[in-house]
Amino acid sequence: MRELPLYFMLIPAVILVGIYSYGSMAGVSIAFQKFVPTKGLFGSQWIGMQNFRNLFTMPDILNVIRNTVVISLGKMAGGIIVPVIFALLLNEVASTRLKRTYQTIVYIPNFLSWVILAGLFVDILSPSSGIVNQALGKAGIGPVFFLGDKVAYPITMVVTEIWKGFGFGSVIYLAALTGIDPALYESAEIDGAGRWRQTLAITLPGIMTTIALMTVLSMANILNGGFDQIYNTYSPAVYTTGDILDTFVYRLGIQNAQFALSTAAGLFKSVVSFVFIVVSYYLADRVAGYRIY
């Protein structure tokens, strides 16, 4: 009975989750209808899987899926490697004050929205007046249209996403580093092992379980290319390499009012993501011994 007031406090949150997370799932039925807004969910004609057949015969859909997977894989790989390297480097900083200063500096971008950062990158990466292209020009390299070139755009999206999140992502690895027994380093130092050797023989094996866990869990985001980032930076010039499922669904549903097709595309993404979530948690249990329940 002591916890009863806490359960009452949860009631508003549970109601909101029920309304916005579960109540809205009734809209999934649109994917199986010839949806007419004036007729609503119950008056529109049911056409089965026809919307999915129409979706996968669209000329751009396979390209969009490929872009989503490529950009997501790049972000996943960088989102593991860069935070690990930064955590290892930061762990070698002896001064606590200096270490906290570095941490604060690299954490800040994570708390800025892509609406703000997109405006900054448009100016910074401008081919005519951007500071990056000015530096490249002094090095004898011609201007690069980072946000308008179909080859440079996906690379730019991966790099900027890693830059934004690597500081915050390193928190997990810094916490894992604190769990390594200091006696192991003392023994290695007595045996004549330098810092590099200690890193290879003690530090990396000590956090390898955490690295494996984060890698496996990141599989669930295989179709999440990052709508906020892409939508605020892309243009029709880079659709061939930069258009992802989220932006594709947005254009279909919001801009072109093809509600049934956009719902079908969104449901396809959700089903695939769900499968990857199940697989990732199974692998997390087998590889790293991580279980939710």
Description of the molecule:
The chain is mostly helical. The protein has one domain (33-288): MetI-like fold (Orthogonal Bundle), CATH 1.10.3720.10. Helix content is 69%, strand content 1%. The chain is built from 14 helices and 2 strands, in the order αβαβαααααααααααα. The chain has helices spanning 4-22, 40-43, 50-56, 61-91, 96-107, 114-124, 131-138, 152-178, 182-190, 195-217, 227-233, 239-242, 245-255, 259-288, and strands spanning 33-34, 45-46. A two-stranded antiparallel sheet has the order 1-2. Helix 8 crosses helix 10.
Jot down its keywords.
single chain, 293 residues, mainly alpha, MetI-like fold, two-stranded antiparallel ribbon, 14 helices, 69% helix
* Global morphology: globular
CATH class: Mainly Alpha
What's the Cα radius of gyration?
Answer: 24 Å
Please state the structural category: mainly alpha
**Proportion of beta-strand residues:** under 5%
Major β-sheet strand ordering: 1-2
Summarize the amount of helix as a percent range.
Answer: 55-70%
Brief overview:
The protein has helices spanning 4-22, 40-43, 50-56, 61-91, 96-107, 114-124, 131-138, 152-178, 182-190, 195-217, 227-233, 239-242, 245-255, 259-288, and strands at 33-34, 45-46.
Topology diagram in text:
Layout: H1 4-22, E1 33-34, H2 40-43, E2 45-46, H3 50-56, H4 61-91, H5 96-107, H6 114-124, H7 131-138, H8 152-178, H9 182-190, H10 195-217, H11 227-233, H12 239-242, H13 245-255, H14 259-288
Antiparallel strand pairs: 1-2
Helix pairs in contact: 3-14, 4-8, 4-10, 5-8, 6-11, 8-10, 10-14, 13-14
